[in-house]
């Protein structure tokens, strides 16, 4: 049964239906983002109080990546096999319960074990959330809407920093896990209303379900916005793709681009951004001052994501990635030489902005666009697996570089990786700007 799901979804005007989907997906991803970045505040506090050592903090970060690597890998196969909606709900439940349990961890060793379980849920959420949203939004607004959802996600960074500043000195670091866990479970309950992706239903041969769902969506949108325009003529249906197609001449370069960029970005985030409070504490700042510095710098995250959302659709994905990489390199080369507090905060804020332009464009927009519907989650999951796997050693490398060379040594590694990233995207990447997902499959 030919449903023509892609063309029918792409001709829909942006409406309350799309906003509802974005908030249902984005709310869960906000709490995942909150929990990823809560490590930046919690680890500074556990280190300061003697609950953990620098080495244990590195282990905490490392098992996060092991869990995220496993979650990314498994959710790709589960999402393409059992659907986006099922996988999305399962990983949020795993994350929520593990997060709540972490608030009662009696030792750093137990907290590290629970962090592994949280990591499984965190790794799955990023893969399935952005990919699902990609399959609902029309091409002319895909960059803005996915970038907008990333703004929701990275808002977890300043929110975690702000709440850490307000709550940890008064109630302790355990309260942060209670907030994250309860929030995730509330969203899990609300997100039972999330529909399945019609594109996925059609790709696995469940045409009748896809047709019924599309008719329901079209009826809802037409009641709000009037008669719908006819869908464009469907492209010829490509042969069904399996996992082996990722090694084909069409898709292998895209896998290389996806894996490389996610290795770089995971290293940048978890080797620099989340370590800032610990760096500041190690250099003698009080826990409150450390959190305040990190809060000011973290405000660059949503700013960068907003910029990425608009430039991805106006400039294109590849120019935005290359330009933000270059700006991060320049500011990263300046940052270690700044010691005056006001200038340190200003340059730190400016450095955070292009980092999160890259986060927005790569995680939220570009990677899900690279692959066909039949293998989208598996391919994105494999790329995320490389990204998470390569950063398992990042915390230990970060600690070693910081001890030997200070923050300049850490940033030198980041700059080298950014140069590689820009080169790979420009050489092997495609440009999906304003193009339908089905067009990108040829």
What's a concise summary of this model?
The protein has helices spanning 5-10, 16-49, 54-82, 84-102, 108-134, 142-154, 156-171, 174-190, 198-203, 207-225, 252-271, 276-282, 287-298, 300-314, 317-334, 341-369, 376-390, 394-405, 407-428.
Proportion of residues in extended strands: under 5%
Q: State the major sheet.
A: none
Distance between the termini: 22 Å
Number of domains: 1
Q: Please, what is the CATH homologous superfamily? A: MFS general substrate transporter like domains
Strands, count? 0
Task: Give me some keywords for this one.
single chain; Growth Hormone, Chain: A; 442 residues; mainly alpha
Tell me about this structure.
The protein has 442 residues and is mainly alpha-helical. It has a single domain (7-226, 243-431), classed as Growth Hormone, Chain: A. It has 19 helices and no strands. The protein has helices at residues 5-10, 16-49, 54-82, 84-102, 108-134, 142-154, 156-171, 174-190, 198-203, 207-225, 252-271, 276-282, 287-298, 300-314, 317-334, 341-369, 376-390, 394-405, 407-428. The chain starts with a helix and ends in a 14-residue tail after the last helix. The mean pLDDT is 86.
Give the helices and strands, then pairings.
Blueprint: H1 5-10, H2 16-49, H3 54-82, H4 84-102, H5 108-134, H6 142-154, H7 156-171, H8 174-190, H9 198-203, H10 207-225, H11 252-271, H12 276-282, H13 287-298, H14 300-314, H15 317-334, H16 341-369, H17 376-390, H18 394-405, H19 407-428
Helix pairs in contact: 2-5, 2-6, 2-7, 2-8, 2-12, 3-4, 3-5, 3-17, 3-18, 4-5, 4-8, 5-16, 5-17, 6-14, 6-16, 7-13, 11-16, 11-17, 11-19, 12-13, 13-16, 14-15, 14-16, 15-16, 15-19, 18-19
